[in-house]
Design goal:
Radius of gyration: 26 Å
Strand content: 5-15%
Structural class: alpha+beta
Helix content: 40-55%
Number of strands: 4
Number of domains: 1
Number of helices: 2
Shape: elongated
Length: 144
């Protein structure tokens, strides 16, 4: 019998090393998955508020003021309000209007203490200052 027969295949050690590497990579993915999910939800909130801003301008161009801008303005607007609520942890989107200004904001989930705010002056962005004091009665009606 020939002792020079070449055996094909992997040794047990090689297989264990590969399994260990796959396990390490999987644990890294699992650690970052919740953060990625929250960031994706924040992106949906930001997109929905951006679309609400278009409706805000539509209301003003139709009525000459922002008084009718609300979640009940149209079925599309109601759908956007629901999308924000589904993606921000269940909090209703806040809409504040006067005749001459409008403001809409919602908390974000990826980083605690942040909100996304858009207003009738064209401001829109992520903020760390609670917009409630600005986008409410007695405030400016604009994002900080």
């Amino acid at each position: 019998m020939n002792k020079n027969i070449l055996l094909k295949g992997f040794t047990l050690i090689e297989l264990l090393v590969v399994i260990a590497i796959i396990g390490i990579l999987a644990s890294i993915v699992v650690v970052y998955f919740p953060t990625a999910t929250k960031s994706a939800k924040d992106s949906r909130v930001i997109s929905a508020i951006g679309q609400m801003r278009s409706f805000m301008q539509e209301v003003y161009s139709t009525d000459g003021n922002y008084n009718n801008f609300s979640c009940s303005y149209s079925p599309e607007m109601q759908s956007l309000c629901n999308e924000v609520k589904e993606n921000n942890g269940g909090t209703d989107v806040v809409i504040y209007t006067t005749e001459s200004t409008a403001c809409v904001y919602s908390p974000l989930t990826a980083k605690s203490g942040t909100w996304y705010c858009a207003d009738s002056s064209g401001r829109a962005g992520t903020i760390t200052q609670d917009p409630q004091s600005y986008c409410s009665q007695g405030g400016t009606g604009l994002c900080p």
